[in-house]
Amino acid sequence: MSLEIRKATIDDAPALTQAHVRSWRKSHEGYVPAKAVEAFCASRPQRWVEILSREVITTHVALLDGRIVGHFSFGPCRGEDLGERYWQLYSLYLDPDCQRQGIGRQLIAFAEGRAREQGKTAMTLQTFGKNKPARLFYEACGYRRRDRGKVRREYGRPLRVLRYVKEL
To answer: Domain 3-167 class?
Structure first.
């Protein structure tokens, strides 16, 4: 098994969308209404074309034996001001068939390395409080909850969003 991590291109949009949708369905199952999950998934093909053609955010893809199996996006901290020393992991999704194989840890390490290259000394990310597998994964990677989180109306219902931080 050969893993490659590289910056995403517009040509990656279809395969990136497929892996993202599979992961999103699985990771939000049970607490995001099915109708909202399907609406999100239906919007992804066009949304990824827009994101990758405009380079709105920095996105990398994970290829396993040449096939896109996941992606992650990262860059300067948005929203809550944590200071200039932070970089933010905006998203990380991995095809469910490829989880629990160490690939996610490699993606996190890659993003953290890029943050260090930019002179950042800490990373932050957000995840839904009900997404226990994601929370456990981030905690195993050294991220710690910063606070009790904030309840936001997401996908038609109130959901708690937790912020995690890690010193690099």
So the answer is: alpha beta
